[in-house]
User: What shape does this take?
Amino acid sequence: MDALPEHMNIMAAPEPAVAESLGGQGHLELDQVSKSYGHEHALLPTSFQVRNGEFVTILGPSGSGKTTILRLIGGFTQTSSGRILVDGKDITRLPPNRRPCNTVFQDYALFPHKSAAGNVGYGLMVRKVAKAEALRRVDEALQLVGLETMGQKFPSQLSGGQQQRVALARSLVCQPRVLLLDEPLSALDADMRRQMQQFLKRVQREIQTTFVFVTHDQEEAISLSDRIVVMSKGKVEQIASPYEIYYRPETHFVATFLGDNNLMDGTVRDGGGVDLPIGPVACATDGRGKGEKVYAAIRPERIGLARTIEAGKTGIECSVAEIGFAGAMTTVRVRPNSMPDLSLLVKVTSGRWIEDLTAGASVFATFDPADISVFSRTAP
Amino acid sequence: MMNPVSRISLFVLVALVPSVFVLLPTIAFVANSFFAVENGQIVPTFTLSNYAAFLQQPEYWGVFVNTLGLCLQVSIICLVFGLPVAWFIWRLPERNRYPMLFVVILPLFMSYVVKLFAFRSILGLNGFLNQLLVASHLIDKPQMAFLFSRDAIVLTQASMFFPYMVLPIFLNLERIPHSLTQASSDLGASAGMTFREVVLPLTMPGVVAGLVFVFIMSLGDYITPQMVGGMMGHTFGRVVWSQFGVTFNWPLGASFGVVLVLVCAALVGAVGMTSRQQRI
Assistant: This one.
């Protein structure tokens, strides 16, 4: 179904005039919102705000409560406690049809007996929008998602990516203050998924609607979001920009959930810095007291490898344990000579001398102490 | 791998039972409808006189048309009550849903005859309904009108075939993903609008299947009209039955049977055509 010309179509930026009439920048606030089923806590009391026009991703493994949050905002599940506000207005007790939010469902939830245009126009029909205006807005929405020629097709005649875009148009045509997206890309194949990610980001930039996006895919979260809410076991682990989430994790879960990481046990030194198994390191400790047990994390790509080391620079003498070539990058597992039980993962740009490395070779691992992030070993 | 001989013999073996017990009787039955009766004997000649009799004599086609009306009435009553009941069961919490469905289809496990006698005792002269109405002073003395009337047949059949309406509609409702009703609500539709715009259109195949089930069963039923319909219960099913059991004019009865089969087949075919045009 998805031939090349259509892919090009996805990339076409929507007309600015079209974009203006769709969606709005709502401000979303969760105030101590929780959900429990009997004694099961699906969501512990959670508070956060989403700014106007922001793209926030809720990231977590299955069972972390991320979909619960979305269903609570959408009104499909009732809160056990707390308040949900959109633009300062309490919507906690409103039914879904009276909330200023719209949801793009994981399975798209397109009405099989209605055409693409019929699906997109559904929200306008139930609101009794005048026919001429409804037609115009449906056309605009279909144009926005690059399906202006597919209006008469039925969902069963559309590909997964096209159905996805119809679902998006159907929600946007209602001009939601906040758009909720429940793992909308999980059913697509990798190629289509990447295209849809770019497309979503572009649409969001154009129409400036507040997006709350749920996913379990870390890369997706990092590449799409303004901010990420990382969830685990019904509670928020960290809320921060993708960069901070990746390089400045604040909990063990965040440090290990997103990509590879090197984690070491450490103890805060008197007067700053941390004692690590590889020796004392002068990294920031954010005012933590002496003797506090901490984790120190450093990303594999923030560690460098060198055969020799210049005088005056510090490096840890290591021996190579494992080499994994992965195209542009090569992952090398090294063991410090002083601490053979410790193993460090290093990702370096592939190169001639890396190619020549063999297991057992002696190398120096170098890093900037500023790249080490330190966080408490006890859960906050 | 099987050799061709054993494959063919296996096929013959498998095909034998249906051929002998279904195909051959049907052929014999259709053939009979073209035979004549002379001096109480079936004469195997080719004649269309049986079909001509059906078309020419109002006591045959008149009854047939009346019976179609009766069946339609029964089907519509079943639909009017069956759709809300199926919808109600569907909306129940998951753990109550199947027990409740079981309660509704429980009468299917009871003997047909037992149910008929139950209706006779409810509708009869000293029956429950009469006693209730007399006790509540709505009528002075028990009435005969409930039993042995066309209404009694409609009521009894509607009640007996009710599960056949609920079941297909419920199973159809079960196939509607909850996300569709949620999406409808999410897009601003009230519960009533969601029902009209999403649930009902997607339930049409179940509704049509239920209507066909009930209609065909009502059309073929000749015992209920006899048991609760009395003189008023002269339906086409009984006309067919009497050709075989009373007047011993088997060819005429067979031709009536063929008419019934053709009507049912046409009905099923028409439904199949329309459901194929839907995108569900």
